[in-house]
Design goal:
The structure holds two protein chains of two kinds. Chain A is mainly alpha-helical. Chain A has two domains: 277 residues, no CATH class; 238 residues, no CATH class. The mean pLDDT of chain A is 84. Chain B has a six-stranded mixed sheet, with helices on both faces. In chain B, strands 2-1-4-5 form a four-stranded antiparallel sheet. Among the domains of chain B are: 126 residues, Rossmann fold (3-Layer(aba) Sandwich); 48 residues, no CATH class. The model of chain B has no long low-confidence stretch (mean pLDDT 89). By secondary structure, chain B is of the alpha/beta class. The chains are: A mainly alpha, B alpha/beta. At the A-B interface, helix 1, helix 4 and helix 12 of A face strand 1, helix 2 and helix 3 of B.
Chain lengths: 573, 249
C-alpha cells in the first residue's frame, strides 16, 4: 500500500515537472513552438505519404504483394524489438545508475523495489516514445492501403503498448546485470567483441548468392523464395515481435480469434516477466547501484592487471597517446591542444557517448559496403544517381543526429567548469572555434570516407565522386557550425546529462534546422547536378543549384556561429 | 544511535574503509575529519544505505542499514555536499513532497515546515522554482527538507558549502539545539573550525582507518600537541602516514 503511495507521489512530481517544462517552452518562444509543431506535422505527413506510396508499390506485385508486405511488417517489428532493447539498456543504465534522483531516493524511506519500478517506468517511456512516433505513419499507411476498419488502429495501438513492455523489462534486467558484473573497461571490450561477432554473423547470413540471368527470367518464384529465406528469422515463433506481427496481421485479415490468440501469448509473457521485474528486481537493482558506486576494476584481483596498473603508474608523468597525436598537428598551440585533448579523452571515456554513434554509422557503413552487390542491377545512370543522392541524404541525416547529440551539448557540458576554460587566456571565442574545428575534422573523416566508399561501390566517375565529396564536406562543415553555434546560443549549464541537454529547446531546434537544411541542400544539389537527367542540364540551372546550396550552407553554418561567438564574447562567467 | 562495527569497504584492490569501529550515542554532535580520499564519504554512504559494505555492520537507531533499510532510513536524514532537488518544483512543494515520503500528516508538515522556513529565511523563495535559486539557498532548502521529519540521526556532508556566514550560523545553532534535544548529528567536514566549535567528539580518518576519536582535549593528549585543532589534525595524519610507510607489507 505504502509502495503504491510512494510510486504515485513520484509520478505526480514527475508529471508536474514535465508540465512545467512544457509550459516554460511555451513561454520561451511562440515561433519555436510553431516551428516544432510544423516539423512534427510535416514529418508525419511526409513519412505517411512515402510509406503509403511504398506499400502501394509493393502490394501491386502480382501474387506477391501481400507476402512482401507481411514480411516487411515481420521485419519491422523484429528490428524494432532489437532497437528498443538496445535503447532500453542504454537509457536504463543512465537512469538507474547515473541519475541524481535515484541516489536521492535511495536515502529516503522509499523501498528499493519502488525506486526500481519508478525508474523502469521512466526508462520505458524515454526509450520507446520516439520509436512509436517513427512507426506510427507506417502503420497508418498499412491500414489505409489495405482499407482496414477503424478498430484495427485501436487494436494495433494496444498491442504495441503491450509489446514495448517486454524490451523494457529485458533491457532493465540486462542493464542491472551489466552494472553488477562489469566495469567500463570490461564492458567496452565485451561490446567491441560482440559487435565484431554480430557483424561477422550478419555478413555471413546476408552474403549475396550468385543467380544466373536464366533463373531470374524463368524461375522468379524460386529466386524470390531464396531471397525471402534470408528474412525468415523474423518469423521465428518464440520472438515477441512474431507474436505482435501475427496478431496485427491476423486482425487486419479479420481473423480476430487468431489475433487474440497471439495477443494472449504476448500478454502472458508481459505479465510473467512484468511480475518478476516488479516484484523481484529491487534487491538486484540496489546491489548493482552499490557496486557501481564502489567499483574498482573487475580485473582488480588478477595478477596480470595489477602488474599492468603498476607499469602504467611508471608512465603517469608521460604524455598520453591523444596528446602525442595532437602534438603532431602543425601550428596547434599548446592551449588549444590541451582543450582538444581534454574533449577527446572525455568523449572516449564515456561509452554511452560513442556507443550509439558507432551503431548508427556502423549500420550505414554496412549498407554502403554492400552496395557493390547491387552494381549489376544499377546499370541505368538514373538509378546510380538516385542511390548516390539517397546515400548523401542518409549520410548527412546520420551526421545531423550526431552533431545534435554530441556537438550541440559540448559547450553546455563545460557546465559548472565553464570558468576553467572561460577564464583561460585562450578566451571563449577561440575555445568555441577549436571545438568546431575538432568536431568538424572528426565528422569529416567519417562522412567523407563513407561518401567516397559509396561512390566507389556505385562505380561513379571521378568527376561525380568529387562532386559528392565536396557536397558532403560542405554539409559537414555547415551542420557542425549550426550545432556549435546553437550550443552556445542555448546553453544549459545546470544539466550534466548530454541527452537531457539535447532534449531541451536548443537541441530540438538544432535537429529541426539540420533536417530542413539537409532537405534544402539535396533539392538544390539534385536541381543543379549535371547528371540528374538524361538530357544535359543548362549551365544556368546548374549554377543556380550550386549557388543555392552554397548560400544555404553558408547561412546555416555561419550565422549561428557568428551569433554564438557574439554571445560568448558578452557572456558573464 | 549510530553503531559501526568492523566496517570494511574495498574498491577492487583499493581498501577505502579499513576496519572502522565507532559508536555515536543519542544526542551527540560528532564531526569526522580527514584528508581527501580518507574514506569519509564512503563511510557516510554506507551509513545512509547508499552502498553495501564489503564486511562489517552499521546500525542506525538500532536497525541494521542493510537488513532493515526502511526502518533505518525513516529515522535518518542525509544532506550531501551537492544535494539533489527537483528543479521545476518550488521549495514548498519539495518540502511537502519529502514530508509525505516520510508519511508525515498534513498538519505536521504545515507546522514544522512553516517554522523551519521562517528560521531559514526562505519565505520569499517559496513560490519560485528551485532552478532559479542560488547554491546557498538550495542548500538551505535541502537542510530544511531533511530536518522536517525531525530525524533521530542527521548525516551531513560538508553542510556549510555555499552558505553565507549568517545562514551558516543558523545551521550551526539549529544543529546544536537539535543535538541537545536528542538528535544525533554526524557531520563530515574539511572546515576544522566547525568541528572545533560544534562537535562533542571528533573522529579523524586517514587512509581508510579511524586513527583517532575523542573530545578536543582527548585528541590533544593523544597527539601530544597543544593549540588549534589544525595542529592536532596535521600531527595525527602525518604520524599515521609515517607508520603506514614503515609497516612491513
Amino acid at each position: 500500500m505504502i509502495m503504491k503511495h510512494h510510486l504515485a507521489m513520484l509520478m505526480r512530481v514527475s508529471l508536474l515537472q514535465t508540465w512545467r517544462r512544457l509550459a516554460s517552452i511555451r513561454e520561451q518562444s511562440q515561433l519555436f513552438l510553431t516551428v516544432i509543431m510544423l516539423f512534427i506535422v510535416g514529418y508525419l505527413a511526409l513519412s505517411f505519404w512515402l510509406f503509403y506510396r511504398g506499400l502501394h508499390f509493393i502490394s501491386a506485385f502480382p501474387g506477391l504483394g501481400t507476402l512482401l508486405t507481411e514480411r516487411l511488417l515481420y521485419l519491422l517489428f523484429a528490428f524494432l524489438f532489437v532497437l528498443l532493447l538496445f535503447s532500453n539498456i542504454v537509457i536504463s543504465h543512465t537512469n538507474f545508475f547515473r541519475n541524481r534522483e535515484t541516489t536521492f531516493l535511495l536515502t529516503l524511506p522509499v523501498s528499493r523495489l519502488t525506486i526500481f519500478r519508478w525508474k523502469l517506468l521512466e526508462s520505458t517511456l524515454l526509450a520507446s516514445w520516439a520509436f512509436l512516433f517513427l512507426i506510427a505513419p507506417l502503420l497508418a499507411a498499412y491500414g489505409l492501403t489495405n482499407h482496414l476498419p477503424w478498430h484495427f488502429y485501436i487494436a494495433t495501438v494496444l498491442l504495441i503498448a503491450l509489446f514495448i513492455i517486454l524490451p523494457a523489462i529485458f533491457g532493465s534486467f540486462l542493464s542491472v546485470s551489466l552494472a553488477r558484473f562489469m566495469d567500463r573497461r570490461s564492458f567496452q571490450i565485451t561490446f567491441v567483441v560482440l559487435a565484431v561477432c554480430g557483424l561477422y554473423a550478419a555478413n555471413r547470413w546476408f552474403r549475396p548468392e550468385a543467380i544466373s540471368d536464366e533463373m531470374l527470367e524463368t524461375r522468379v518464384l524460386a529466386v524470390l523464395d531464396r531471397l525471402l529465406l534470408k528474412t525468415r528469422f523474423a518469423q521465428f515463433p518464440i520472438l515477441p515481435s512474431y507474436w505482435l506481427s501475427a496478431s496485427v496481421l491476423n486482425w487486419a485479415e479479420g481473423a480476430i480469434s487468431a489475433s487474440i490468440f497471439f495477443a494472449a501469448i504476448l500478454l502472458s509473457h508481459v505479465l510473467f516477466f512484468g511480475y518478476l521485474a516488479t516484484t523481484q528486481m529491487g534487491g538486484l537493482f540496489f546491489d548493482a547501484a552499490s557496486r557501481v558506486q564502489s567499483r574498482g576494476s573487475v580485473f582488480g584481483g588478477w595478477g596480470w592487471f595489477k602488474a599492468f596498473q603498476k607499469r602504467k603508474q611508471k608512465f603517469a608523468f608521460d604524455t598520453g597517446f591523444v596528446e602525442i597525436m595532437f602534438s603532431l598537428v602543425p601550428g596547434l598551440s599548446s592551449d588549444r591542444r590541451a582543450l582538444l585533448t581534454k574533449d577527446v579523452r572525455i568523449f572516449w571515456r564515456d561509452t554511452t557517448q560513442w556507443g550509439q554513434s558507432l551503431v548508427l554509422f556502423g549500420l550505414l557503413g554496412a549498407y554502403i559496403i554492400n552496395l557493390r552487390h547491387f552494381s549489376q542491377q544499377l546499370t541505368n545512370p538514373f538509378w546510380v544517381n538516385l542511390v548516390a543522392y539517397l546515400n548523401l541524404g542518409a549520410c548527412s541525416l546520420n551526421l545531423a543526429t550526431l552533431t545534435t547529440r554530441f556537438v550541440f551539448p559540448q559547450f553546455s557540458l563545460e557546465g559548472k567548469r565553464i570558468w576553467i576554460v572561460g577564464l583561460a587566456p585562450l578566451g571563449l571565442r577561440r575555445i568555441i572555434l577549436a571545438k568546431y574545428v575538432l568536431t568538424c575534422t572528426a565528422s569529416l573523416i567519417l562522412t567523407l570516407l563513407l561518401m567516397l566508399v559509396s561512390c566507389r561501390m556505385l562505380k561513379m566517375e571521378s568527376g561525380q565522386t568529387a562532386y559528392f565529396a565536396c557536397a558532403i564536406s560542405v554539409m559537414t562543415m555547415a551542420l557542425n557550425g549550426l550545432a556549435t553555434g546553437l550550443g552556445v546560443l542555448y546553453p544549459n549549464f545546470r544539466e550534466e546529462n548530454p541527452s537531457k541537454i539535447v532534449s531541451g529547446f536548443g537541441g530540438t531546434f538544432c535537429l529541426i534546422l539540420s533536417f530542413v537544411y539537409i532537405l534544402g541542400s539535396i533539392i538544390f544539389l539534385a536541381f543543379g547536378a549535371p547528371w540528374s537527367n538524361a538530357t544535359a542540364v543548362p549551365w544556368v540551372q546548374a549554377a543556380s543549384g550550386w549557388f543555392g546550396f552554397a548560400v544555404l550552407s553558408f547561412a546555416t553554418g555561419w550565422a549561428p556561429m557568428k551569433l554564438g561567438l557574439r554571445k560568448a564574447k558578452a557572456m558573464e562567467i | 544511535m549510530i553503531e559501526i562495527e568492523n566496517l570494511v569497504k574495498n574498491f577492487g584492490d583499493v581498501l577505502a574503509v579499513n576496519g572502522v569501529n565507532l559508536s555515536v550515542p543519542k544526542g551527540e554532535f560528532f564531526a569526522i575529519l580527514g584528508p581527501n580520499a580518507a574514506g569519509k564519504t564512503t563511510t557516510i554512504k554506507i551509513v545512509v544505505g547508499l552502498m553495501k559494505p564489503t564486511s562489517g555492520t552499521v546500525r542506525v537507531a538500532g536497525f541494521d542499514v542493510q537488513t532493515h533499510p526502511l526502518e533505518a532510513r525513516r529515522r535518518l536524514a542525509y544532506v550531501p555536499d551537492f544535494p539533489f532537488l527537483y528543479d521545476k518544483l518550488t521549495p514548498w512543494e519539495f518540502l511537502r513532497f519529502t514530508g509525505q515520503l516520510f508519511r508525515m500528516t498534513e498538519s505536521h508538515i504545515q507546522t514544522a515546515g512553516r517554522e523551519l522556513v521562517s528560521r531559514f529565511n526562505l519565505e520569499s523563495y517559496l513560490s519560485k522554482p528551485i532552478e532559479a535559486l542560488s547554491h546557498g539557498t538550495r542548500q538551505r532548502v535541502a537542510i530544511v527538507s531533511a530536518l522536517l521529519h525531525n530525524p533521530e540521526v542527521f548525516v551531513l556532508d560538508e553542510p556549510m558549502v555555499g552558505l553565507d556566514p549568517h545562514h551558516a550560523r543558523i545551521v550551526k545553532d539549529i544543529l546544536r539545539e537539535r543535538a541537545n534535544e536528542g538528535m544525533t548529528v554526524f557531520v563530515s567536514t574539511h572546515q576544522l573550525s566547525v568541528a572545533e566549535e560544534m562537535a562533542d567528539r571528533i573522529g579523524i580518518m586517514h587512509q581508510g582507518k579511524l586513527v583517532a576519536v575523542g573530545t578536543r582535549e582527548q585528541l590533544h593528549r593523544q597527539s601530544g600537541v597543544s593549540g588549534a585543532l589544525e595542529k592536532v589534525f596535521l600531527s595525527l595524519t602525518a604520524e599515521e602516514q609515517i607508520l603506514s610507510r614503515n609497516s612491513p607489507i
